[in-house]
Design goal:
Largest sheet: 6 strands, parallel
Order of helices and strands: EHEHEHEHHHEHEHHHEEE
Number of strands: 9
Strand content: 15-25%
Shape: globular
Distance between the termini: 41 Å
Bound molecules: adenosine monophosphate
Radius of gyration: 19 Å
Structural class: alpha/beta
Length: 277
């Protein structure tokens, strides 16, 4: 396994890789959720490239860019064990020169949900993912359903800009008690860690109600909110029952839906979601 940072070193290494190349973009501080993507890529591709880059342009000014956890040595050891061929770990200066001025933006799909609450976030995501794709030139790229809107937005970008890349979306990996794995979970103290279970618990309750025949978007949102509001350490930023394709908020009767939420547990902002139907 090799590690490169500069784009020319990446291109040199890329030439030697067996095709097809599978690519997993990450911000590092890897957990089993990331590794599930790596394993899917390993199973389906001749070579696997992982990028580790905490991308400054997708963080808002009041967000956690500088304190986001980083540990390249630990990440490298985990990826070596998974049989990864190449790590690309650039620095912000290598990715964004001082005269950088080209951005990739997906329009409608980024106006709701996370995009609505994190202005500029998806512009940063799509720009960096486009740059990562142009560096790695993979045949397949792996993303997690954990970031449901991101997956939809990246698919749109790939289609709209003719990237010759197959986007694969892998299921959410959870702790045994239901908490969706996230690098940000390490911000939680023990009491908050317990309170954070309210996200997956509320989704499970809504999913069960859907299973029993509940089809009202309002009722499903209410089920989520009632459970979330009962947890004193939780502060709900939004809950949503949206169309899984357009990401528009749903009204009336639904047949399928993306239930999603962002909830602060203490100062830590957590997201979770599930698909219905
Ligand atoms: P990040 O390092 O947070 O940017 O995540 C890198 C990739 O891993 C993204 O495609 C995420 O959706 C995915 N990912 C993060 N957490 C999970 C999880 N718990 N289960 C599955 N995929 C995940």
């Amino acid at each position: 396994m090799k590690t490169v940072s500069a784009i020319h070193d990446l291109w040199n290494e890329r030439k030697q890789l067996a095709e097809p190349v599978g690519f997993v973009p990450t911000m590092g501080y890897l957990h089993e959720g990331h590794l599930s993507l790596v394993r899917a890529a390993r199973a389906e591709c001749a070579s696997v490239v992982v990028s580790i880059f905490v991308n400054p342009t997708q963080f808002g000014p009041s967000e956690d860019f500088s304190r986001y956890p980083r540990d390249l040595e630990r990440d490298s050891a985990l990826l070596e064990k998974e049989g990864v061929d190449l790590i690309w770990a650039p620095t912000p200066e290598l990715m964004y020169s001082s005269d950088f001025q080209t951005w990739v933006e997906v329009d409608q799909l980024t106006k709701t949900l996370e995009g609505e609450r994190r202005p500029g976030h998806f512009r940063g995501v799509t720009t960096v993912v486009a740059k990562l794709f142009n560096g790695v030139l993979p045949q397949k790229a792996y993303f997690g359903q954990k970031d449901a809107q991101q997956a939809v937005v990246i698919r749109r970008m790939v289609q709209d800009l003719n990237f010759p890349i197959d986007v694969v979306v892998c299921p959410i990996v959870r702790e045994p008690d239901g908490l969706a794995l996230s690098s940000r979970n390490q911000y939680l103290n023990p009491q908050e860690r317990q309170a954070a279970l309210v996200l997956s618990r509320s989704l499970k309750a809504a999913k069960e109600a859907f299973g029993r025949g509940e089809r009202s978007a309002d009722s499903l949102r209410e089920i989520l909110l009632n459970i979330l509001h009962a947890e004193p350490l939780a502060r709900v930023q939004y809950v949503s029952c949206s169309d899984p394709v357009t990401l528009q908020e749903q009204k009336g009767e639904i047949s399928r839906s993306l239930l999603s939420m962002a909830v602060y547990i203490g100062n830590t902002r957590l997201i979770d979601n599930c698909l219905l139907g």
